[in-house]
Amino acid sequence: ENDELVILIANTGHWLKPKETQSKRQRVGINNVRERLAKIGASETALTHDSQHGWVRLTLRIPDLSAPKI
What we know:
Elements: E1 4-12, H1 28-39, E2 47-52, E3 55-63
Antiparallel strand pairs: 1-3, 2-3
């Protein structure tokens, strides 16, 4: 899709928002993915999530690094 790999992960349930008392260490997984995407030139919207109708969806967009830049 538009010179990028799109991965959609879906599961039943609801998105758990981080608690204010939750430490940075407990959120390392999502932050690590965002940092790695930034290193390869992915936009800030490369990792998104939403929760609707009893489903949680996480979408990951990885740019095609071999595609010629125009």
